[in-house]
Each structure stands twice: as structure tokens, then as C-alpha cells.
Specification:
Elements: E1 8-10, H1 33-40, H2 43-50, E2 55-57, H3 60-69, H4 79-84, H5 93-102, E3 108-112, H6 127-134, E4 140-144, H7 154-163, E5 168-171, H8 177-185, E6 190-194, H9 200-212, E7 216-221, H10 224-231, E8 237-241, H11 252-261, E9 267-271, H12 277-285, E10 290-293, H13 295-299, H14 303-309
Parallel strand pairs: 3-4, 3-10, 4-5, 5-6, 6-7, 7-8, 8-9, 9-10
Antiparallel strand pairs: 1-2
The structure holds ligand LARABZUK.
Residues 111, 113, 116-118, 241, 243, 245, 248, 271-274, 292-296 line the site of ligand LARABZUK.
GO biological process, one term: L-tryptophan biosynthetic process
Catalytic activity: 1-(2-carboxyphenylamino)-1-deoxy-D-ribulose 5-phosphate + H(+) = (1S,2R)-1-C-(indol-3-yl)glycerol 3-phosphate + CO2 + H2O
Domain Indole-3-glycerol phosphate synthase: 86-301
């Protein structure tokens, strides 16, 4: 149960247009309740309360206590406050996966993919209809933005992000900080980093840039060597792609083995080649927490219901 409880909370203070004024006592008081607060509250609690960090880590002891109280319960957003200050926090990608699991639903990440080097062509698919259908049950949405081989675009990401109330992953071959910034400004809540496309230093830099903007990162691996490198980042989410990106060959056995090697506490996403409820169950039995599905959902959005209940 404790694995399902968020590891951090999102603090809107850094998103405010200007810093908050310092705490003040109500006028006409003889003694200072703020001074008293400083005397009676443990320093760590005060620091937690007045921090300006965007993501604040929840101590393991507190997470353990919540597990004992029977949490997690659904997260409630202060939408009126968000409207008032003209911002919205990133929709947590990892948290949405955990929330779906705690509701007893298989967390499916539905992908919007118009074409692929493996030969898939979406044809004249009605994108808005597809988004409405998957928004009814998927835990998150993945949007491929790469234009040449996948027919994606930044416009597609912007449109998808503003039309669904799901965390949105920007899926692309991200190799520069500019792409990470674009993801954020287009409304992505998470970004894909493919380990084998990046050197360690690049991976670390892009990972920390994305997380400091409040986005989650789906760190994608294919084999043992990728996994070893990915774990050095201490990531919240790892995706295991069964597709070898160079040969396009699928290796489900390798994928299941790697899923089984990912330490507990990290959200494990199985990516590619999921075509049926049986495929999903097999991956779940191998340790996958979430399932990223592109081609088969684009071909048949009705498959979502079967995957959610598998
Ligand atoms: O989909 C491809 O053919 C492909 C080829 C080369 C690099 C990446 C590729 N796909 C990106 C993905 O990771 C998949 O779109 C995603 O996992 C969904 O896979 P699927 O359900 O098999 O469409």
C-alpha cells in the first residue's frame, strides 16, 4: 500500500505571480502568535510549511502513517485557486498511474500516434473523437510529436493537452534542453527520455531540467545495460520498451525480464506491442504497473475497456 502513496506534494507557491508576504499577526494583538509558532513547532515542520520548493518530498514516516490510515484517497485539486492565479500545476503522471491502481483499474497510457516506422498509418482518424474515447478511462495520454516518421507535431501536443484532463506525456526523441522547455510550454506534464539516445551527463541534465519544471520523466530502457544507467538517476518512473528502436524487433521475453529487475517504489511502465487483455495480464504478472498502448488502441479504441478490466 505504501508504494501507492505519492512521494511528494506539489506546492503552488513558486507559480504565484509574486512571492507571498511574510506571515503577520492580526492587528491589535499584544503577543505574537507567529513568535509562539517558532517556539512550539519543530523546525522541520515549519520549513515544510513555508518552503518555496515546487515538489516537496513527503517523509517516509508520514507516508507510512497514511498507509496505516487506509490511504491513498483521491487527490482533490483546488481548481478555483488555480483559475484565480491563472496557472495549473502539472497533472502528475506517476501519481495518476498510482491513483488508477488504487482504484483497482489497470493504468493504461493511451498513445496518440498517427504513423510509425513499423508501418502503422492511422489514415483519416478523427483525433478529437479518439481523445474523447480514451479520456473516459485511460490514466494518462502519450502524444508522439516527432513529425517525419510518426506524423506528429507540437500543435498536436498543444491541442491534446488542452482538450483532455489527463496527464500528457510528450513522446519524442528528446536530446536537447530546448525540447524539454517546449514540452513544458506546450502543456506536457511528462516527457520521455530514452536512455540509449543520451550520454550519462546529458541524461542527468535533461532529467533534472524536466523535473525542476515540475514534469515527470518516463525514463525508457530496453535492456540490462540501459536499466543500470537509468537507475543512477533514481527515477520515479521507468518504461521498458519491448521494441528495439534500431532493428524495430520486439522482444517480449527481454521486456518481462527487465520489468522484474526494477526495484519496488519505482513505477514500471510496459511499452509497445500490447494488443490484448492477455498481453496486459502477462506484463502485469511480470511486474508492470502501467501499460503504454499505441497502435492497437488507434486501430480499435474500444479495446480500452477490455484493457482496463483485464
Ligand atoms: O512504433 C514504432 O514503430 C517505433 C519505431 C522506432 C522507434 C520508436 C517507435 N515507437 C515509439 C513507441 O515507443 C511506441 O509508439 C509506443 O510504445 C506504443 O507502441 P505500440 O503500442 O506498439 O504502438
Amino acid at each position: 500500500m505504501v508504494d501507492l502513496i505519492p512521494e511528494s506534494w506539489y506546492n503552488v507557491v513558486p507559480d504565484l505571480p509574486e512571492p507571498l508576504p511574510p506571515p503577520m499577526d492580526p492587528p491589535g494583538r499584544d503577543s505574537s502568535s507567529i513568535g509562539l509558532l517558532n517556539e512550539i513547532m519543530p523546525r522541520a515542520v515549519l520549513e515544510h510549511q513555508f518552503t518555496v520548493e515546487r515538489w516537496v518530498r513527503i517523509p517516509d514516516e508520514v507516508r507510512g502513517a497514511y498507509a496505516n490510515f487506509g490511504r491513498p484517497t483521491p487527490l482533490l485539486r483546488a481548481k478555483k485557486l488555480e483559475e484565480r492565479i491563472g496557472t495549473r500545476p502539472p497533472r502528475g503522471f506517476a501519481d495518476a498511474i498510482r491513483a488508477a491502481r488504487s482504484r483497482g483499474v489497470n493504468p493504461v497510457i493511451a498513445e496518440l500516434k498517427l504513423a510509425s516506422p513499423s508501418g502503422f498509418r492511422a489514415g483519416d482518424v478523427d483525433v478529437e473523437r479518439y481523445l474523447r474515447t480514451v479520456a473516459r478511462g485511460a490514466a494518462a495520454l502519450s502524444v508522439i510529436t516527432e513529425p517525419v516518421a510518426f506524423g506528429g507535431s507540437y500543435d498536436l501536443l498543444r491541442m491534446a493537452s488542452s482538450s483532455v484532463d489527463l496527464p500528457v506525456l510528450m513522446k519524442d526523441f528528446v536530446v536537447t534542453s530546448g525540447q524539454v522547455r517546449s514540452a513544458h510550454s506546450l502543456g506536457a506534464d511528462a516527457v520521455l527520455l530514452i536512455v540509449r539516445l543520451l550520454r550519462d551527463a546529458e541524461l542527468e541534465l535533461l532529467y533534472s531540467e524536466a523535473t525542476s519544471m515540475g514534469m515527470d520523466v518516463l525514463v525508457e530502457v530496453h535492456d540490462e545495460h540501459d536499466l543500470e544507467r537509468a537507475l543512477r538517476l533514481r527515477p520515479r518512473v521507468i518504461g521498458v520498451n519491448s521494441r528495439d528502436l534500431l532493428t524495430l524487433r520486439m522482444d517480449g521475453e527481454l521486456q518481462r525480464r527487465i520489468l522484474g529487475m526494477i526495484p519496488g517504489g519505482i513505477v514500471r511502465v510496459a511499452e509497445s506491442g500490447i494488443r490484448s487483455a492477455d498481453d496486459l495480464r502477462r506484463l502485469r504478472d511480470s511486474g508492470a504497473d502501467a501499460f503504454l498502448v499505441g497502435t492497437s488502441l488507434m486501430e480499435n479504441p474500444g479495446l480500452l475497456e477490455e484493457l482496463l478490466d483485464a
